[in-house]
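Why show two proteins at once? Because comparison is the fastest way to build intuition. When a single record is shown, students tend to memorize it. When two are placed side by side, the eye starts asking what differs. So, the first record is below.
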Amino acid sequence: MTGFELPPYPYDGLIPARALAAERFGSAIDMSVGTPFDAPPQVVLDAIASSNSERGYPPSIGTAAFRDAAAAWLDGQFSVAIDPKQIGATIGLKEFVAGLPHWLKLRTPERDTVLYPAVSYPSYAMGADLAGCRSVPVPVDDQWRLQVDAIDPADAERALCLWLNTPGNPAGGLDDIDAAAAWGRAHGVPVFSDECYIEFTWDGPGRTILQTGETGVVAVHSLSKRSNLAGMRSGFYAGDAELVHWLQEIRKHSGFMTPGPTQAAAVAALGDQVHVDEQRERYWSRLQAMAEVVGEMGLHAPMPGGGFYLWVPAPDGDAWALTNRFAEELGLIVSPGEFYGPAGADHVRIAVVRPDADIETVRSRL
């Protein structure tokens, strides 16, 4: 008998492309991962340095100040009034996404299936695999939007949860949130909505699933993208009172605690919208600039409905060939779409997170 066999980590597959770029240009400009490069606001750095919260254990559910700040942000930005008791802190979002199926399986042991978008962040499926659950992709339409009406009733009966990600990674699609919430309530399936790109919604205002009500839904948010705080690992979940309470309690027992200085930084970040507006302008400008570069290569990069990724169709559907072409011709590292599911294998993703000067360097290599 053998144990669980870990698949290769997807981004390790880009090592040859990085070597190719370095050989040609001396170094690579990496836009394969959506890691922020811009500085967080000074008010956040000041809060980290002066929190005086380093000595004691931080509360797993989040400090009162943190949960109050998250509730105030949801109300101020999206007109959603939620009790801070229905909010819990996370150590970034990846640990929450990857751990959720395990916790839900303990809550509902007769179910074993995680539903997630067929083109999406790989941790939704990996979280199911790590929990010994079934990971079942839900089809997306030609605008990369989740099609809940395509879910097999047999899978719905076994579902622990349905994941949304809107605006979506990698394709920038905007899901029908109302339809997803209604589907979940009709089938008794909790719907978790990953909204970490919500403030980078380009087609209309950003929307949270909490605007449909709290019953049966949980919104998941991160400060990594909006405030350039990926290194601090801070996020939160909010929604259905019973679901949130279960997650708060099981995470207490598991020892998940967001560090005190990180929570203080999050309070400052959530209270300042100016830096987010400035970051929105940067990302929109970079999306336009990088789309022009791609266009000058004879390719087409549609502008996304949200997020800061370009989702570029590969000629002849060969994403790896296009990945290597970007490395060889521009010294640019991008991600082949298969990282985000087989249904994305004919595209590449470009994360426009690098400074403007790097985009101009790429342009100069054309």
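Second record. Ask yourself what differs from the first in the token line.
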Amino acid sequence: MNYNLITILGPTAVGKTKLAARLADRFNGEIISADSRQVYKGMDIGTGKDLSDYIINGKTVPFHLVDVIEPEDEFNLFLFNKKFYQAFNEISSRKKIPFLVGGTGLYLHSILKGYNMNPVEFDSARFSELNNSTIGQLTSTLKNLSPSLHNTTDLLIKERIIRAIIIAESETHIDDVEKIEIVPLIIGVKLEREEIKKRITARLKQRLKNGMIEEVKHLVDEGISFERLELFGLEYKYAGKYLKGELNYNDMFQKLNSAINLFAKRQMTWFRKIEREGIFIHWIEGANFKQAEQIIFQNYFTNK
């Protein structure tokens, strides 16, 4: 099969990013992140955005869709697809291999199944989704979509801002970016549940030690609301509850640890869904570089 994308997926805490960086370095590739929270600037510790993972043999493997938007702005499936195809085309034009890497099931599924992101209707769920945002957040979103916006009256009334965003999204539909058929070679990284649990707990302790609470407090000090932190989920949701005094430190840790474990299970549900739909995943036990390298040698370069 003539593959044009290598995907590294798996639940949280299995070592996907470092493995992908090593493979991209080995096979002259660049990484496109499929993480719904690492797109945000200033959200580093809580999202596990360890940029040192991309440094292999003293050089940084190029990566995309990390640190691309401010925390007060909106990022969604539509924008992910648009930015994915832009990055995919750029990487391919340089005769390099795109590596899609992450654990956000919906984002991965949208690429692997080739979602047709049709323009959104005014009476759709998109309107309701946007209506949950503040006027400030909506204004930032609209300005990002339409940098040359002249009609500032659109920025005064919430409903008009939402309609303007939906129109702008329709006008900047991802079909405006060359969208070619994706033929993915998929490698899945898995571990036993108990091992994942141990890693999640150890990692959470390390993140807290490294200043995760302070990172969330800084976001609040910069104007990010506790309601916005709730939408980011997991580390930001529970750290926010701790900062508000709704949870003590021990309860915050225990509830967050349990929530991350449930998240890992939901990730595996997404991957099983992908398999049931007929997409083959080459599973490896842990971030085994040699095994992944062999899979790529035996499959990706066939008929090249």
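One difference worth noting in the second protein: The chain has twelve helices and eight strands.
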